[in-house]
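The material for today's practical consists of a large collection of protein records. An example says more than a description, so a record of this kind follows:
***
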Amino acid sequence: MEKVFISPSRYVQGKDVLQKAGEHVKKIGDSALVLADDFVWDLAGDTVLEDLGKNGIQTQKIVFGGEASTEEIKRIAGEGKESNVVIGIGGGKTLDTAKAVADELQVGVVIMPTTASTDAPTSGLSVIYSEEGTFESYKFYDKNPDLVLVDTKIISQAPPRFLASGIADAMATWVEARASIEGRGTNMAGGLATIAGQAIAEKAEEVLFEYGLLAYEANKRQIVTPALEAVVEANTLLSGLGFESGGLGAAHAIHNGFTALHGEIHNLTHGEKVAFGTLTQLALEDRTLDEINTYIDFYLALGLPVTLEDIKLKDVSDEDLLKVAELAVQEGESIHNLPGTITADQVVDAIKAADQYAKAYKESIGYEG
């Protein structure tokens, strides 16, 4: 099988880069469908529209409905047939929808994240959900975004919870890529990991352990520091390239499994659920106590969930855990990149083990958070 590495055509990161959006976008198209939700329109969308206009780009403003569903994609694509570029501004689901709309229209796509909460911006795929928010599938595209613009000033203004969630999502990158490489699994591009993909995934984790807590504190003060710049890049570019070209594993499959449940868990962010999925993968892989505790300790410092109670599943039944596990091991899921055969029963046991390991660690350090 061939090795494959894919990436966006251009990535630009820095303070106030969205104020120069038109300068970059005009190289791709002159008629833009611009997508954002109501909150993001007030935060950054109108500023982007103004600069696009100054650069001679015609714009069509579209309000995102909130779910990256097939129905929402069809609705927006139907309104943008005259556009030659789609611009998504906001969080993961908005950006995934923008990519899907651009694919429907067969035009260029520009991604402008307003948080560093996921590694979705650089990827050539979208996660598609039902109208009710249940995971349905990954949708793959022939190319990655033409341009990713990351404004660290705007990201510094977002709640620190979002940065921590992005760190959790990015912390899964090397854990999953390592397992996928060991299992000779395929990456999101349908090939084996390149040396570059592996190196980038590993570097993402290195940067996060080194600068993650500093960046988190900078975010609390809403300031842009070298540590924040490094972590935004790790959350967005390094993790994006690392997961897509390195390969996913169990952490994201278990995250997807959690969408089978109803209740408060759905108030958690993507990254918060992935954090617990990462601990579950480490338990499933039989990693050492020292290694698992290193992740638990880091997550606790960032206010991330590490137990079933933390992810609002304190009294979850075995029946519900089996639903999660069965969805996580369904055919085509990334958990099958791990070495060997993974069963639903093994996943249930790993979920319980991760919960117990985290409880024991909290008790050992007298954690009262």
Notes: The chain has a mean pLDDT of 96. Residues 157-365 form a domain with the Dehydroquinate synthase-like, alpha domain fold (CATH 1.20.1090.10).
